[in-house]
Amino acid sequence: MSVKPRLSRGLRDLLPESMIARQRLIDTVRGIYEIYGFSPLDTPAIEYLDVLSGSAGQEAQQSIFRVTNPEKEDLGLRFDLTVPLSRVVSQHSGISFPFRRYQVAQVWRADKPDPGRFRQFTQFDLDAIGAPCGRADVEIIAAICDSLSAIDAGPYLVRFSSREILNLLLRRAGIRQERAAAVFRVLDKLDKIGLGKVKLELTSGYTDSSGDRIRGVGLSAAQVEVIEEFLSVSGATRSEVLRKLVALFSSVPDSTEQLDVIDGISSTLDALGYHSDRVALDVSIARGLAYYTGPVFEAVLLDAPRFGSVFGGGRYDNLVSRFGGPPIPATGASMGVDRLLAAMEHLGRVRPVKTAAQVLVSVMDETLAGQCMRVAFDLRRAGIRTEIQVAPGKLGKQLKRANRLGIPYVVLIGSNEAERGVVTVKQMAVAMKQGAGIKGHGEWRQARFGQREVARGKVAETLRSLLDHAS
RNA sequence: GCCGACGUAGCUCAGCUGGUUAGAGCGCCUGAUUGUGGAUCAGGAGGUCGAUGGUUCGACUCCAUCCGUCGGUACCA
Fold first, then answer.
1. Of A30, A149, A294, A326, which one has the greatest count of Cβ atoms within 10 A?
2. Which of A286, A322, A264 is nearest to A137 (CA)?
3. Which bases of chain B are under 7 A from a protein CB atom?
């Protein structure tokens, strides 16, 4: 009885066609983070369950994939990279702060999968631990911008706000701090469900179209009015929004100090060239997450708003202290690699590439295979990504393979070439263009479009110049 | 998690109110002067009809449960 090949729910294979674009994106972003002087970190996929679940509520524990080991300990797969990071900085006493690291790795959540949302997915995190509010947040936001620009994701907007601004709102509206998490979670949905439903959910709740009862937070009408007034604060620039916030919160004690922090971040961003057209102060950004304590931010692709935020992050000054010791100020952001790729694919900004190979060295005649191999290795040593035909087959089949995989050049070495110490270089695209009008099979075959003979010693040089001109 | 729809070849689907050997297009493989992709033509492979149980003389078709997919909603550290 054979085993049926299959994958469990929410898991998927990433075939070469997906992996090539993905790795290029990751390489590009890694380059940005290294330019910023961040260092790489890796941690195990498996952590102790209590290490993972401490920070999150019990509802969060449900989405942890549980595992065990031969010692029968309770373990789980990491659901993000921030919690393992806070373990690392608490556990390794030799670490010197600020600890600025990046990490790209798989994480797992046992949630219901949705389009573009899987149970195993990749996050690319950038964090600075031991960095108080200010420059560290600025450089995280700047790195988000530089990454989105570098990967050519199209127009984007980083929106940021601050938990402290939201706390001012709570004080102005007379909402107790214990309700903060519930209120923020509802506010975070503004984009998705609109003001009307947000207001309902903040008060009495409502019954949605599927008949599901949505529980309300139970605020008073007067409190919701204050929130609505706050949410209507907007402006063309960050400084305009800030001016309005200063006016709005003038009656709340200490509000200017809190808003000065945001003002500082905003003006530094301006000085560095990150202006309001791509980094907006948007008071509706709450981030659902409970552990944020200061600035919070997220990024969307403006042409693909339905994919939601492709970066998310914020300041979490208390997270590390749950492993004991003093609070360590920290800030960071996480790129949703899968979501970002899905959005860019949707926008046609990811060119599908089936293979990394630029050249296929065909093998027409097994007795000449040695020569073919030598040519292939000459190309490889010249830095040209080269596949050599490793399975037997007719030339037609080999060309078909190159065509299908999108390999732009094929090197042909048969007895004709071998006798004269040359090889034939075929440019697949040129041949396709030249043969466009041809109807008959025989004529097509004999025309041998897009081919040129090159001396054996010049193959690498020739292909190098062809490739350079093509790109 | 909850509500709803759906599940037939690798993909997109057809299959009349239950009735013999389940079809098409695309894709794939082979071939059409043995050293040439494409187009065209000719062949071919591939499905225990999502799984299990039930109703029936008989089930791809009806029923139940499970699994999965899609849509909505919730969640998203």
1. A294
2. A264
3. 1-4, 28-40, 67-77
d(CA A310, CA A195): 23
Query: What ipTM, to 2 d.p.?
Result: 0.82
A13 Cβ contacts chain B strand, under 7 Å = no
Please state, in angstroms and rounded to a whole number, the distance separating the CA atoms of residues A471 and A469: 6
Residue spans in chain A of domains classed CATH 3.40.50.800: 359-470
Residues (43-62, chain A) with CB within 7 Å of strand B atoms? 52-53, 55-56, 59-61
Q: Which of residues 331-370 of A touch strand B (CB under 7 A)?
A: 364
Asked whether residue A209's C-beta has any atom of DNA/RNA strand B within 7 A, the reply is yes
What pLDDT, in 10s, does the model give residues A272-284?
Answer: 999 999 999 998 8
Q: How far is the CA of A117 from the C1' of B5 (A)?
A: 21
pLDDT per position as a tens digit, A201-236: 888 776 655 555 666 777 888 888 898 899 889 899
Query: In this structure, are residues A47 and A84 in contact, taking their beta carbons and an 8 Å threshold?
Result: yes
| Gap from A209 CA to B18 C1', Å | 37
Nearest of A99, A115, A110 to residue A67 by alpha carbon:
A110
Please give the structure tokens belonging to residue A204.
């009495």
Closest CA to A136 of A259, A295, A271, A280: A295
Ranges for all domains in chain A classified under CATH 3.30.930.10:
16-346
Q: How confident is the model at residue A58 (pLDDT cuts 50, 70, 90)?
A: very low
Q: Any bridge partners for residue A129, and if so which?
A: A99, A330
What Å value separates CA A7 and C1' B14? 29
The DSSP result for A326-362, as a single string, is S---EEEEEEEHHHHHHHHHHTT-S---S-S-SEEE-
- pLDDT over threshold 60, residue A370: yes
Predicted confidence at residue A288, as pLDDT, reads 67
On the 0-12 / 13-18 / 19+ scale of CB atoms within 10 A, A348 is exposed
Kindly state the tokens that stand for A56. 């999150």
Strand A295-301 and strand A156-162: the pairing is: antiparallel
Whether residue A302 contacts residue A155, with contact meaning beta carbons closer than 8 Å, is answered with yes
CATH superfamily of A16-346: Bira Bifunctional Protein; Domain 2 (3.30.930.10)
Give the pairing type, strands A359-361 and A386-388.
parallel
Residue A308's SS3 state is coil
Indicate the fold that domain A359-470 takes in CATH.
Answer: Rossmann fold (3.40.50)
